[in-house]
Design a protein that fits this description.
The complex is a heterodimer of chains A (640) and B (54).
Chain A: H1 6-9, H2 14-17, H3 26-30, H4 39-42, H5 50-53, H6 55-60, H7 64-70, H8 74-77, H9 80-87, H10 94-103, H11 112-116, H12 139-146, H13 148-155, H14 164-167, H15 172-175, H16 178-181, H17 214-219, H18 225-229, E1 233-243, E2 249-259, E3 261-264, E4 277-282, E5 307-309, H19 325-328, E6 381-382, H20 384-390, E7 396-400, H21 404-409, E8 416-417, H22 440-450, E9 457-461, H23 466-478, E10 482-486, H24 489-495, H25 524-530, E11 536-540, H26 544-547, E12 566-567, H27 583-592, E13 600-604, H28 609-620, E14 626-628, H29 632-639
Parallel strand pairs in A: 6-10, 7-8, 7-9, 9-10, 11-12, 11-13, 13-14
Antiparallel strand pairs in A: 1-2, 3-4, 4-5
Chain B: H1 2-11, H2 13-21, H3 24-29, H4 32-39
Helix pairs in contact in B: 1-2
The chains are: A alpha/beta (640), B mainly alpha (54).
């Protein structure tokens, strides 16, 4: 969602005046003094969010039947929060807990306006289409403006492959219609999954147990649909809340981990949820979360699980855990275990943990997946332990590809700093041909001045994998002979128990003598010639909303995608925090999209960055012929 | 508001729209240059300490 300038947020469109709502006097909803041409007096008594402060008056006179229930909907009231927090608290502490809830948790609520005319308050507000009211909520500017990380990112493929419903151009309302959104939440509703009007898979996918799919007949009633059809999703840890020096409330979500865990269903009384196993997501609660308001407020922290039923919005028909029986059956790592819990949450999750005795047993006779991992270039990825053992060895050079400020906060001992986004490897955004690689001589000069030689073993890391893999791709193009990526990046380094250093780098300039790797770059003209040829695949690594044309890069002249390209968002190849899935899983997933090592693969995206990342992953997986379309959509859209 | 809408619809939306167009609110909120001038320096009320996804 692109940020809006202050004036853009309140700029009316002339088209609005031609609508029914535009025919109303502004003050009939917002108050204020329209006769005044002075800003201060015109806005005296003005209500910027009338549907929150007085929905009956603002919307109810015309839409009375809707407002009658919508004013008590979960979006408007967040009414399940008080009960959850009360279950973690005592009578004495509840007052402070409730104050914290009102200051922080309640900031997310919205009402009619936040879904039908403007961005919600939590998303910094601003008109959608110049105040023209939309019957159908905008998935980018409204729904996922709030439901971003855990819904929007996963739905549109900013994490994982995205959701099959998004790829079919279904928006949020397609599954979550007005009947659900406007439903009043009953008093003391224990949780959102207990809402009777909640959308369910079976609203559309009816009677699957009677269909031809054997696995549906076996599993329906035993496992939640998402157990088989979701991908890995984000889990949050350690939400810290407080107020800053100006008294403005804030929250800090300190750690996010991408994983998938199956737990036992302790929520089987919820409508349509009579299964035994369900996906569970870690919520960010911890005992000290509200310490800003008083110490030890959660006197009964063990009263509510911290691993809760999840319904990730990243559905795929085929998933790795369901690709073959024993990817799930007997796979201890997939099921929530006591060892996954921190000490303070063992009591809270005792009924969610799947003990060994309740693990589905391995199936003796089942098909195995034929995935050839023999071509994987295993040396192109190292883990933190390997790096720790090899630090300081001759020719091993560690490169930190984060920005300099992050590097200065702490880096792997002896690492040099080289941010590929600011080092001059590519032309600038305002260049005639933006974001393309500069000449080899210039690149070699930058690498040499950073202290790199072509024959060094260069190990690169960052925070997310995005800049590290882009740098690794540049190194390969420039002729480096031995490059590796640190799996899990700096977080993986810390998680393995290794410390960061603040000692400034001290590496002398070298001469980088590598020669250009031929066939690395595919220009737009070369790509156009390849389109449609057998054994050529164009992998577009952008998020689904780009492919659908719902958004575009600011430098692109239009939205869209290269004809015939296959969309596989980069988030499917690199997990949060720069962690990598197994080569077998990645090769299987690529195969489901007909991206196989026997083909020439051209990677593309908006600016060439994600394309370079995808290039590195495919090279690691053993693809022999991978090319980067570094002109990418920004230039393609201007010229084709 | 319902009464206002009924009145407007009864009188014809065309004339109502004309009335809205001549209101001070609409005059300013259609004028981007004036909004820039009036809102220059306006900042969002979000703490700089906030981090992570919601």
């Amino acid at each position: 969602m692109a940020p809006l300038e202050p004036q853009e947020k309140v700029l009316l469109s002339k088209g609005f005046l031609a609508t029914t709502h535009g025919a109303l006097a502004c003050e009939s909803c917002h108050g204020g003094s329209p006769a005044s041409m002075d800003k201060a007096t015109a806005h005296a008594g003005f209500d910027p969010v009338p549907s929150i402060n007085n929905p009956r008056k603002a919307c109810g006179d015309c839409h009375g039947d809707i407002v009658a229930t919508a004013k008590d909907s979960l979006h408007a009231t967040l009414s399940t929060f008080p009960r959850v927090l009360a279950n973690r608290s005592s009578k004495d502490s509840l007052g402070h807990v409730d104050e914290a809830r009102k200051n922080h948790c309640s900031a997310c609520h919205t009402s009619c306006g936040g879904c039908h005319v403007s961005r919600p308050q939590f998303a910094q507000k601003g008109f959608i289409q110049g105040h023209v009211f939309q019957k159908r909520s905008d998935p980018i500017n409204q729904c996922t403006a709030c439901h971003g990380s855990r819904v929007g990112s996963e739905f549109f493929g900013e994490r994982g492959q995205g959701d099959v419903h998004a790829a079919r151009n279904m928006d949020c309302v397609a599954c979550h219609p007005a009947k659900e959104m406007h439903a009043a939440a009953p008093r003391n509703l224990p949780g959102r999954y207990q809402l009777g009007e909640l959308a369910r898979c079976t609203d559309c996918h009816k009677d699957l147990q009677y269909g031809s799919m054997r696995d549906h007949a076996i599993h329906i009633g035993k496992v939640q649909c998402q157990v088989c059809h979701s991908q890995t999703y984000v889990n949050c840890y350690g939400c810290h809340v407080g107020k800053d020096a100006e008294g403005t409330a804030f929250f800090q979500n300190r750690r996010e981990v991408e994983t998938l865990k199956i737990g036992l269903n302790q929520d089987a009384k919820a409508p349509g949820a009579g299964y035994r196993y369900m996906l569970v997501r870690h919520v960010p609660s911890y005992p000290e979360m509200f310490d800003f308001y008083g110490r030890g407020l959660f006197t009964s922290f063990g009263g509510v699980p911290t691993w809760k039923r999840a319904s990730p919005h990243n559905i795929q028909r085929r998933t790795w855990q369901a690709a073959t029986c024993n990817n799930c059956h007997g796979n201890r790592a997939l099921f929530l275990a006591s060892s996954d819990l921190q000490d303070h949450e063992k009591q809270a999750n005792r009924k969610v943990v799947v003990p060994d005795g309740k693990l589905p047993k391995p199936i003796e006779k089942t098909q195995t997946l034929a995935i050839d991992t023999s071509k994987v270039r295993s040396g192109m990825v190292v883990d933190a332990r390997w790096l720790h053992e090899n630090l300081g060895k001759k020719n091993v050079v560690v490169v930190d590809a984060r920005n300099r400020a992050e590097f200065d906060k702490g880096h792997v001992e002896g690492a040099i700093s080289l941010d590929p986004l600011t080092s001059g490897f590519r032309t600038g955004g305002d260049a005639e041909r933006p974001f393309v690689l500069v000449g080899h001589e210039e690149v070699a000069g930058i690498l040499g001045r950073a202290g790199l030689e072509a024959n060094d073993h260069v190990v690169v890391y960052d925070q997310s994998g995005l800049t590290a893999m882009a740098l690794l791709a540049v190194l390969e193009w420039a002729g480096a002979t031995h490059v590796s990526y640190l799996d899990g990046g700096i977080e993986g380094w810390h998680s393995a128990g290794f410390h960061a250093s603040k000692v400034p780098p001290n590496r002398a300039t070298r001469v980088f003598t590598g020669t250009v790797r031929p066939g690395f770059v595919a220009s737009s003209a070369a790509l156009a010639d390849l389109l449609g040829k057998p054994n050529v695949v164009v992998l577009d690594a952008r998020a689904i909303h780009r492919i659908l044309g719902e958004t575009r890069h600011e430098k692109a002249s239009r939205a869209g995608a290269i004809p015939g390209s296959i969309n596989l968002p980069l988030g499917a190849l690199i997990m949060d925090n720069g962690a990598l899935k197994s080569p077998a899983e990645l090769l299987w997933m690529l195969r489901t999209r007909r991206i196989t090592p026997d083909k020439t693969v051209v990677t593309t995206c908006d600016t060439g960055l994600a394309a370079a990342d995808a290039f590195f992953v495919l090279r690691w997986l053993g693809f022999p012929d991978v090319r980067v379309h570094d002109e990418a959509w920004v230039i393609w859209s201007k010229t084709r | 508001m319902g009464a206002a809408l009924s009145g407007l619809l009864g009188a014809g939306v065309g004339s109502a729209a004309l009335a809205a167009e001549t209101s001070g609110c609409v005059t300013c909120h259609l004028d981007e240059a004036m909004l820039v001038k009036n809102l220059g320096g306006a900042t969002a009320k979000k703490s700089a300490m906030q981090s992570g996804a919601g």
